[in-house]
Amino acid sequence: MIGKVEHITRFGLFVTFSTDDTVSKKTGLMRWSALPKGHPKYQIGDLVSFEISKEHTDGKIDLTYLDEDFKSIFGQFLEETEHRLESLKAVNKDLR
After folding, report:
1. Are 2 and 20 in contact (CB under 8 A)?
2. Which domain holds residue 17?
3. Which of 57, 66, 79, 82 is placed for a possible disulfide with 49 were both Cys, Cβ 3.0 to 4.6 Å?
4. Which domain of life is it from (predicted)?
């Protein structure tokens, strides 16, 4: 799965994501110990690949890091999507 880094704490990265069976967003914690040593630092807004390792009864979700390069896999798709969103914003601005 792919998620977006929303918060960075001393515990790890809080990653927001959507599952296939729901439109609502969920947030899980990827602990620092789950990230590989020497990995570049993440910033808020970065995309990260993960799998859900455990869902607790209290609603908390633990995430495990997966090593995937998003830019090489989804780079062109992300660029095209960004261009489409920008053109839609311009059209919407003209309609107001």
Report:
1. no
2. 2-65
3. 66
4. Bacteria
